[in-house]
Amino acid sequence: MNYGSNSSAKPEARSFRAKTSAGELTIHYYDWMQQGPKDDKKPLHTLMCVHGLTRNGHDFDFLAGELSSQMRVVCPDMPGRGNSDWLARGKDYDFPLYLEVVKQLHAHLNVPIIDYLGTSMGGIIGMHWCAERYPPIRRLVLNDVGPVLKKAALKRIATYTGNDPIFDSVADLEKYLRQVMGGWGRLTDEQWRHLATYSFRKRGDKFGLNYDPKLGDKMKIAKYLPLWMLWDVTMWEQYDAIRRPTLLIRGAHSDLLLKGTAQEMLTRGPKPQLFEVPDAGHAPALMNSLQIDAVRDFLTAA
To answer: At 2, is the pLDDT very low, low, confident or very high (cuts 50, 70, 90)?
Structure first.
């Protein structure tokens, strides 16, 4: 697999045991150790990348492969996704549990300070963590998510989350991903194949999606109710409490993070830098050089 121009970079697949409110879980993560020269006078620069609702840590392979020339990058599979354990009950898939997991992963890594990048769900986790009084986060990157989640986007996501479709081939699964993840932007055929390769689980002689269908349990109400009966989710209290340098990435056509919300974010809380991706919706894939360089420049700024 080609992870970008830094072709020598490859992750180590690792795991640890997390003690959570839903029981003890094995959490898998992909550890991209720094490839380039290290400064012994400076602490190891570590970036944690956390994926979206139905995704997994391999979503960041292109980003991590490039950034690993300058820093360590750690990308977990959150509970119920990828190779990490599934929960017994769908109702336990919630942000307090996710926050437990990322905090315990940070402790497991044994580094005092990290940078944090979160796409969609991962960004919500990061906002809640960074809103605490003394978060161990130096810089925060929010990828197409903010303190207002629009109900129309939540209903769209609910229509496919937890459906558990079955495919005859990985190629058929890739076609499905191209439909439901069209907002990721202009990906190459290689990048779509990469996503498909890490998005399936074997189901006999067929293929299913590599996440627990119970992830959709809490979203069933949004799936079946008309839009006028739903509501936006707001988290301004958490966002306004953030006191860390922040980069906000937004897909120009995003239906989850609307332009008006992004503009208000620039005047409140951490008053982030804004990087808008013109050919993406929800959420930019962070796979091409312009998007990767925007993240790199922010994280390595003096």
So the answer is: very low
